[in-house]
Amino acid sequence: MNEIWNLSDIEIGEPCRVRGLSASGAMRRRLLDIGLVQGAEVVCVGRSPGGDPRAYRICGAVIAIRAQDARDVRVERGVRWV
Length: 82
What we know:
The chain is an alpha+beta fold. The chain has a single domain (4-77), classed as Ferrous iron transport protein A (FeoA) (SH3 type barrels, Roll). The chain contains two helices and six strands. Strands 1-6-2-3-4-5 form a six-stranded antiparallel sheet. Strand 3 and strand 4 (54-58) form a beta hairpin.
């Protein structure tokens, strides 16, 4: 079994799979609405020049997420797509 990390720990080009959210309220709803549901495949595709936010490919769309919010997304690293 792979370790669980925060989405903010993922490197550019690294695939991962969502394992859960620790966010609550409106932020939890927003993260779920953009596709960060358990089992979703996510790849970090880039970052802004200042380093925050980062861009993630989620369900075929590229979404910018601040590091502060990405810390609330638990992911499994080292996944291989089937």
